[in-house]
């Protein structure tokens, strides 16, 4: 998959912008606060329907305007895909190939991308929900029907929690358990499969980036020696007291290790970033192998918090993926970001091809 074109109107600091990246490596460079990250943010919005910086629609709309509009064109196996997103006072509107869509999942299905951004270390240092989202990304892109599995489980979880908060008795709560158990099993199986899919490629990528063996395992969200049904029964009293379901896939955790030691406790901030990058690049490689096609990878300021040697190792891993890469940097450093990179300079609200 390759992004051929993105046009933005009233997005962040740009009144209008047109960017046409090459199929290989693209480097967007310029001074701080010139809008480099905003271009990546717009591209990512076309694939996710949300900002990877956590910004709401009001923050994304250029000052004084009512909405922003994004248009993109991508290719996949000789098939052209058009993407359109606008957001403002009336809410988000999404079009794929000219047809209006109901949710952001349609964007993720049509335009598959991954991101390495400055907060990527939170994939290692953050809470379990960060790593669950990572597994869900893999499962969503490699397993048809995964989204419906996830939605079914979330509905069952909400229903059971509502019954708990209403003060229902044990018999009533147990009546909700059947749908909960039926929806939890396939979701759990899909996440286990996602871990297995990424395990081997992550081992190789981690060795290249960190010079150490990286291991992953999945904690299922309830005691290993119990079935989920047994765990629910054992936690029923606490669940009723607190109005919350404490056991299930929503409490699952991806456990990361470096040389058999828990990574979260032992690695420095720079190592956390390298490990998180290994996870992201491993997910891209695993998905590409399963799908039989390249993805789009966005790199926002990959040099941040990395020494030159670490950055070189990271970029070597990136180049080995064989996918379209769009990166940002302060300067056009061809030594670090490939001599053959297409270079684009951002200044005063405009982007210009320089090489």
Topology at a glance:
Blueprint: E1 2-11, E2 14-19, E3 25-29, H1 36-48, H2 57-60, E4 67-76, E5 79-88, E6 93-96, E7 99-101, H3 105-110, E8 113-116, H4 122-125, H5 128-142, H6 146-165, H7 170-210, E9 214-219, H8 228-234, H9 236-242, E10 253-258, E11 261-262, H10 263-266, H11 269-291, E12 296-299, H12 308-319, E13 324-329, E14 342-347, E15 350-353
Parallel strand pairs: 3-13, 3-14, 8-12, 12-13
Antiparallel strand pairs: 1-2, 1-4, 4-5, 5-6, 6-7, 9-10, 10-11, 14-15
Helix pairs in contact: 5-7, 5-11, 6-7, 7-11, 7-12, 11-12
Brief digest:
This protein is of the alpha/beta class. It has helices at 36-48, 57-60, 105-110, 122-125, 128-142, 146-165, 170-210, 228-234, 236-242, 263-266, 269-291, 308-319; strands spanning 2-11, 14-19, 25-29, 67-76, 79-88, 93-96, 99-101, 113-116, 214-219, 253-258, 261-262, 296-299, 324-329, 342-347, 350-353. The chain is globular, with a radius of gyration of 22 Å.
Strands ordered across the widest β-sheet:
2-1-4-5-6-7
Decide which structural class fits the backbone: alpha/beta
Beta-strand portion reads 15-25%
The CATH architecture classification of the domain at 1-112 and 295-355 is 3-Layer(aba) Sandwich
| Number of beta-strand segments | 15
The name of the CATH superfamily of the domain at 1-112 and 295-355 reads P-loop containing nucleotide triphosphate hydrolases
Q: Given the structure, what is the number of helices?
A: 12
What is the CATH C-level name of the domain at 1-112 and 295-355? Alpha Beta
Can you tell me the overall shape?
globular
Task: Give the SSE order as H and E letters.
Answer: EEEHHEEEEHEHHHHEHHEEHHEHEEE
Biggest pleated-sheet summary: 6 strands, antiparallel
> What name does CATH use for the topology of the domain at 1-112 and 295-355?
Rossmann fold
Distance between the termini: 23 Å
Helix percent reads 40-55%
What do the pLDDT scores average to?
94
Radius of gyration: 22 Å
Uncertain runs with pLDDT below 50, 5 residues or more? none
